[in-house]
Design a protein that fits this description.
The chain has a single domain, classed as monomeric porin ompg (Porin, Beta Barrel), CATH 2.40.160.40. About 10% of the residues lie in helices and about 50% in strands. The protein contains 1 helix and 12 strands, in the order H-E-E-E-E-E-E-E-E-E-E-E-E.
Length: about 240
């Protein structure tokens, strides 16, 4: 009887968590952060950067199977991201390893984006990016997230509505299967609630959906689903370093 009662409490707790996540994905949004920490949708980079002199720091939950080849367990990452000059963005990310049941090691990776063309009225933007660009290990090293890509954004506005289309192509210099081939996505934000953003994307492996919300001018939270079945959750603090 006690075991049955305990299991019932656990079930109701998990149902409550899933309900809150579901409400988050359909009700809120903001300027999105992707799972790697740089400007983008959920798991793909965007063809635009954060505003100049913007600093971001945050954490993301990463379920098993999202990092295709390298992580066969649930994990998390935390990151620091900064924009300097109007066209450069740099991200430093640390991803937790599960070594013998303990998350006491982490992989360090550095990535960058450079805007080649800024979006204009009739022309899309163009951004080139590279992820996990350096390692201190000889040979192939541990560049688990190594990728390079070209990506473009185009904003389409209607009365009261803003859509941003993203399309890009990823290369696989280290055979990590991270971002290979054509990827793309769309996000939507109502002009009356600019803090709200709803997103859908294809990341070369999964179809992902999420939403995010920007609170108190600094806190960004997102929630959704990888592959329409695994939770996508993250939070970041954002601040403008100078005007």
């Amino acid at each position: 009887m006690d075991v049955l009662f305990t299991e019932n409490i656990k079930m109701r707790f998990y149902q409550l968590i899933y309900l809150l996540l579901f409400m988050l994905t359909i009700s809120f949004g903001c300027y999105a952060q992707r799972s790697g920490g740089s400007s983008g949708l959920i798991n793909i980079p965007a063809g635009e950067l954060w505003p100049d002199k913007t600093f971001n720091a945050g954490v993301n939950y990463i379920p098993q199977g999202i990092y295709i080849k390298n992580f066969n367990y649930n994990t998390a990452n935390y990151f620091f991201n900064v924009n300097f000059l109007p066209f450069i963005e740099v991200t430093y990310r640390l991803t937790l390893f599960n070594a013998e049941g303990k998350y006491n090691q982490q992989d360090r990776s550095l990535g960058g984006k450079c805007r080649i063309l800024k979006e204009k009225k009739y022309f899309p933007s163009l951004v080139v990016g590279i992820d996990d660009i350096y390692t201190t290990v000889s040979g192939e090293g541990n560049q688990y997230f190594a990728s390079a890509y070209l990506v473009s954004n185009k904003t389409i506005t209607f009365p009261g509505h803003t859509f941003v289309l993203t399309i890009g192509y990823g290369f696989d210099p280290k055979d990590r299967d991270r971002l290979v081939g054509l990827f793309g996505g769309i996000n939507y934000s109502p002009k009356r609630i600019p803090e709200l953003e709803l997103m859908a994307e294809y990341d070369t492996h999964h179809l992902n959906v999420a939403a995010s919300v920007y609170l108190w001018k600094h806190l960004a939270i997102y929630g959704g689903w990888y592959g329409i079945k695994k939770p996508a959750i993250g939070i970041a603090y954002r601040v403008k370093l100078a005007d």
